[in-house]
Here is the input.
Amino acid sequence: MKKNRILSFIFNGVFRKFRFYISFLVLALAGCWILNSHNESPRETGNKVLFPEFSSSDLNFDFLDVGKADCAVIHNQRSIVIIDGGLKTSKLSVVDYIKNEVIKNDNLKNINLMILTHPHSDHYGQLGDVVDCFAHKSRFRFVTCKSRVDSSSHRGYENLLEKLRHFGIKVEVLKPGNVIKLGGVEIEILGPIKEDLKNVNNNSVVCKIKYKGKKFLFTGDAERGEEEDLINSGQDLSADVIKIGHHGSKTSSSLKFLKAVGAKYAVISAGDHYNMVSIYPNKEVADRLNLLGVQYFVTKDLGTIRFSVSSNGDLKVPRKPDLKEAA
Here is the structure.
């Protein structure tokens, strides 16, 4: 009892002496929490952050801010292509984004092609929701890779396949050299060259989208093994814009591969993961991009990013004063 009275006396004495500073600290922490919550709200609602001026006739390449995951929506007046679908738990809803930013009030507009680069949850996460919402309107094409995954660990992937079967949508595995044409848009399949039985990332569908002379390369999570296969295949890998492989991880984007692509711009789809501060892009990857003079855009810093190609073939690039650019 005496010990408790002594502790109480010490505590009360310290509190009275420093109560002003303690109150100030509590108020400051509360203010920071409120400010942080306010700053996060645009990301949660999926507001546009980096969009150039564009017209309704442009072909838009939207790289969605879905955290450490991938999702790109390519669209114009006639066609919609979706490549990967982000994590199921991503703050941004892919379905809502397509409804509010892509289709808007045009009820005749629908998805034409869906590409799942490989069956990992940060790529197939919300595709089932997209299928549920849009497949009843038309039977779009679904393209993915040939790859084996443990169904018990990837129930989301199995559910996606079940939904596709329900709507009568065939799962297509295309070979390098196959081309899908949507109006004036061409989607050329470049990889995978061969199946990697040990590393699913190296089975990623790699495709190039061409429109009015401009080229965008999508690499999924392809690592150095698949990058080497692509180089050795002798295919034209050149592109104006590249979606950097594996969220900017050091497992991908070798200097040799980046030189073969020769892109002027790059997008890195990365974000905080499992409540930990993101280490993406890896410093080695960023250094390589800077060395080659590639201007890169990171979704975790900038939010959803849009490039546009006009009907005249002009590439419209998002701009912001604090973008990190190569010297």
Remarks:
- Residues 29-48, 323-327 have pLDDT under 50 and may be disordered.
- The first helix runs from residue 2 to 45.
